[in-house]
Write a structure and sequence with these properties.
single chain, peptide deformylase activity
Amino acid sequence: MILPIVAYGDPVLRKVAEEITPEYPNLDTLIENMFETMYNAYGVGLAAPQIGLPIRLFLVDATGFAEDEELDEEQRKQLEDMKKVFINAKIVERDGEPWVFNEGCLSIPDVREDVFRPESIKIEYYDENFQKHVEEFDGLAARVIQHEYDHIEGILFTDKLSALKRRLLKGRLTNISRGRIKVDYKMRFPDAKKIR
């Protein structure tokens, strides 16, 4: 089932999400619905707060990036296996030189900006079967994970921009929160009190 994606301005996007247990109701169905919602919106990641749930769950599918010709073999291999579910994730280490990449967000449609993030991360998380993992990721894989991880910490990519850039975007962000934007996927707008 395709769920509405919560738009910029909704308070759920600013909450630090809560951990869940294996007994979380209908978790398999929720994960399936989140993947379907993400694919419908042509996203590469989706966090539970983006569908209105303040829980520590996000998923990514960055396999499409593996076709990028500029990647080395190791990065390509990491991205080929990059369809994952992250539950109760905790980034335990960030390393490497911060590098820039143009990011967007399904909750902030039609806004893309250059964001600096560390090159590599080490993350502890549980998968959809509640098996614990500790893994290291770098490059694009690390970036996608960090973007989604920020969502469960109540952080948006726009928070990482300069004060001037945020001021320049203020009008566009207000329009998004009020539903004054055209999108090709189902969204819930906080100020418009409606789903489109």
